[in-house]
Amino acid sequence: MNVPHPIPYQGSKRNLADEILRCFPAEIETLHEPFAGSAAISLAAAAHRRAKCFHINDLNKPLVDLWRAIVNTPDKLAIAYEALWNEQLDDPKAFYRKVRDQFNLTGRPDCFLYLLARCVKASVRYNANGEFNQSPDNRRKGATPATMREHIYGASSLLKGRTTFSSRNYRDVVLHACREDLVYMDPPYQGVCGNRDTRYLASVQFCEFVEVLEQLNAKHIRYIVSYDGRTGTRVHGRMLPEDLKLAHMELDAGRSTQATLLGRDEATYESLYLSPALAAELRNRKTIYRFTRSEQMCLWEVGV
Fold first, then answer.
1. How far is CA 95 from the centre of its chain?
2. For 3-14, what is each residue's pLDDT tens digit?
3. What CATH number did the domain enclosing 238 receive?
4. Using CA atoms, how far apart are residues 82 and 61, in angstroms rounded to an integer?
5. Same domain, 234 and 97
6. What does DSSP assign to residue 237?
7. Which residues 6+ apart lie within 8 Å of 239 measured at CB?
8. Please, what is the average pLDDT of the chain?
9. At what angle do helices 109-118 and 92-106 cross, to 10 degrees?
10. What is the pLDDT of residues 168-227, one digit of tens each?
11. 145: which of 82, 223, 236, 258 fits an S-S bond (Cβ 3.0–4.6 Å)?
12. Domain shared by 235 and 118, yes or no
């Protein structure tokens, strides 16, 4: 299925969405994405009818405002993006700087969408003052208005009328989830962000994150976590503790771009963790989960 993706975003789980959906339970009342970003998992789940309702949250408020505009006012956003795209044509580099200044003053969703479509590697970066400061990719002008309109309308048709939006700390989102819900968490990776990830206005502390997972376990909440991984033999960040009793697997994210630049043929594997409540439910369904990409782990077998 061709899933629409109006927001280009570095670190998006777009290419891994099918594998992640294989770990979904049969019934989901609300799918919560507390670190939504491009909301790739919500879009995939909506396209495949895997959840009734959706909750898109991100600490980056302009990003949530953009999602609200995509879902609720697609006509207005598509027209505004087209106007910006056409206006850039005489001098794209200078126009990008102008729009970036406007966005930092106003937070306008159309400006943000234009910047995301034009910036280097679709990578959101902020300075110490919380201002968007990523440079433009001067080799391209961003998605054409026709292409962007198609993705905006597609995302709106999937999510409109059954999606709530918020810009709160992830703890406030996940701790309100019910047993009938599913929480998908894709926090900033330790191996990438260090103490502060410039994609976010605040970092996620490892110990605090583990404590939140413990609280979810105590409430028997179903959740999935994408968290770090490895490239070749190099491990990125700490694995989540064994005493959380999470089911762990690795997803083949493809050949590492950085390794390729260094002349090495190495694949990147991202860790995926399933909560005890979710793992138990899937085991009870007697389902064998086998993934299509090479070297991925079989999560479990019937009777194990």
1. 28
2. 999 998 876 788
3. 3.40.50.150
4. 23
5. no
6. S
7. 228, 248, 271
8. 86
9. 140
10. 999 999 999 999 999 999 998 654 444 444 444 456 888 999 999 999 999 999 999 998
11. 82
12. no
